[in-house]
Amino acid sequence: MSARLLLGRLAAAVPLLLGISLILFAVVHLAPGGPLDVYADNPSVTPAALERLAEAYGLKEPLPVQYAMWLKATVAGDWGYSIRTGRPVLTEVAERLGPTLMLAGAAAALAFVLAVALGTLAAARAGRWVDRVIDALTLGGLSLPSFWLALVLQYAFAVRLGWLPSAGMETIGASSFGDRLAHLALPATVLAIVNAASWTRYIRAGMIDVLSRDYIRTAYAKGMSERTVLLRHGLRNAIVPAISVIALDLAGLVSGAVITEAVFAWPGIGSLFVQSMDGRDYPVLMGVLLMGSAAVVLANIMADLVQAVLDPRLRDG
Amino acid sequence: MSAAAPILDVRGLTVDFAAADGGTIRALHGIDLTLTPGETFALVGESGSGKSVTNLAIMGLLARNARVGGEVRLEGVGDLLALSSRAMGAVRGGQIAMIFQEPMTCLNPVQTVGAQIGEAVRRHRGGSRAQVQAAVIEALAEVEIPDPERRARAYPHELSGGMRQRVVIAMALACQPRILIADEPTTALDVTVQAQILRLLARLRRERGMAVLFITHSLAVVAEIADRVAVMYGGRIVEQARTAELFGHTRHPYTRGLLESLPVPAARGERRLRTMPGQVIDITRPPPGCAFGPRCALRIEPCDEAPIPFFPVTPDRASRCLRWAEL
């Protein structure tokens, strides 16, 4: 993909994100309840005070006006203040982005390695027992709800065996790289298993398709070993179609693995989302959702880029 | 059959495929053929006659559900069917190289052609990066690709069909193989490119003294390049002869049918294209006798009773027809 095409894709993302933000804004505000409901049953907050608060937050304006105000401020870099904590939304989101990126990166790297290894092996031995075992494993990985898997691993490795910490990102007062890694292990494993299960299937399917191609026979006819044929000629071709799916899953991880982060009390975007949802914290919700949407749009552009790097036929398209 | 010692001696080659119903389907019923250095031997037949299975069996490239029997003796190496997969890897591409029918699809789309040729060179000849690169450029130049340094950096989709076939040939010949197996290398190309590729192959064979096993369905191509020819039908060789003899006087009704189906100039009086009656046999239900029997105008009762042996017509040729003498 040429630089010009890339710029075109980025430019096209702008109206897309605008449309998404409009829908998100509408959906968030259509949900029953509002940010001031917490105070509604509080006898020490008077109706007059509620009125003043609604006025101050702009909640009395018609929805389109609220959207216009929000958009203008957001573009200018002012994402508003959290209704729950009173801190700037950008700060809230930025603080959580680091831990989420760390968790997502670790999980994705682990899942990718697993999926490539298992998918390639399954395709190379398609229909034989190794393939069937991998098929059963991936089916299991796809069927297990992540909250269940998270709870089971937490119980086994943190509670019963005591090998790993049960929750959080670090031990307060005793933080170190090893300590971070130990905290990361369980949530990353849960997310890796869930994603590896589906990626393995995509890579297996891609590989089986590729292995029937003429150029694979050419490689064998040149005297290449099966290992070389699989890794050098098969894998690169087999991964290209799987990239689109992997990119979308990555975007999902970055915009917050809500359940897994909640179970392990991981201070990431997912936890922030749950907390903001509970408190009807519109500004933060909008910030989180918008960031998630941007992640999806960016992931798609990244997928196109990576595919173009891997397959020269896609570079001029 | 030839005076010179054969470089490749195939004896009683059989191939059975495991069928989905648990049975087996015999695709080759005992193929015998020899290749001597410097000669071009053509295997000719319709789709499904077993010519491609023969070459894949020689190269050990058949699918896993194939059972191969018989012997494939390569001079100086021994029976290829008995080799370990590691030892066979050294033969493939090193001693016996192959070129394919589909130049559009038989190159890896995500690697430059230089990388794909270089891989074969490194595998069989080794050498430093610079040496491999030099061998790649030399191989491309030898197949008459203009501007080889630049072409080496091209991806397959950037080249025309004829250019890609030249690349495939360069890749096959870069390791100085003793035998080249060409499986319909010109079928997918248009006629002028076809002629160029055939001339190129003829020149390379002459210069290097390679033996060429040429697989084709085209008798016109056979006439142009082959020294000897074997006609296949239903997984057997039905007639084998020197090319000139075969075209001069065939000794098998199937070959005669093939020759008669060649388009001839209208000036010779016959305007309609002659065709052979009937269908190619279904190899899942082979007849007990002659495989060509159901389509043969010369069929007599003994033809259907038992497999027809290979009758030596002269020391140089043979026919699998009971009535070869009458033809």
From TrEMBL, chain A:
**Family annotation (InterPro entries):** BPD_transp_1_N (IPR045621), MetI-like (IPR000515), MetI-like_sf (IPR035906)
Which Pfam families is this protein grouped with? BPD_transp_1, BPD_transp_1_N
A Gene Ontology cellular component where this protein is annotated is: plasma membrane
**Assigned keywords, A-Z:** Cell membrane, Membrane, Transmembrane, Transmembrane helix, Transport
The record ties this protein, via SUPFAM superfamilies, to: MetI-like
Where does the record say this protein resides?
Cell membrane
The membrane spanning regions, by residue number, are 101-124, 136-161, 181-203, 238-264, 284-306
Just give the chief location class. Answer: membrane
Where's the ABC transmembrane type-1 domain?
Answer: 97-307
Q: How does it sit in the membrane?
A: Multi-pass membrane protein
Q: Tell me the GO BP annotations in alphabetical order.
A: transmembrane transport
Instruction: Give the matching Gene3D superfamilies.
Output: MetI-like (1.10.3720.10)
What positions belong to coiled-coil segments? none
Q: Which family does it belong to?
A: Belongs to the binding-protein-dependent transport system permease family.
Q: What is this protein called?
A: Peptide/nickel transport system permease protein
- Organism of origin is Sphingomonas jatrophae
Tell me the classification of the organism that encodes this protein.
Bacteria, Pseudomonadati, Pseudomonadota, Alphaproteobacteria, Sphingomonadales
Automatic annotation (TrEMBL), chain B:
Q: Which Pfam families match?
A: ABC_tran (PF00005), oligo_HPY (PF08352)
Q: Which residues form the ABC transporter domain?
A: 10-259
User: Example GO molecular function term?
Assistant: ATP hydrolysis activity
What topology does it adopt in the membrane?
Peripheral membrane protein
Task: Please give the InterPro entries that the UniProt record associates with this protein.
Answer: AAA+_ATPase, ABC_Ni/Peptide_Import, ABC_transporter-like_ATP-bd, ABC_transporter-like_CS, Oligopep_ABC_C, P-loop_NTPase
GO CC annotation, single: plasma membrane
Subcellular localization: Cell inner membrane
An example GO biological process term is: transmembrane transport
Q: What is its main location?
A: membrane
Extract the NCBIfam families matched here.
Answer: oligo_HPY
The record's similarity note reads: Belongs to the ABC transporter superfamily.
- Protein name per the record: Peptide/nickel transport system ATP-binding protein
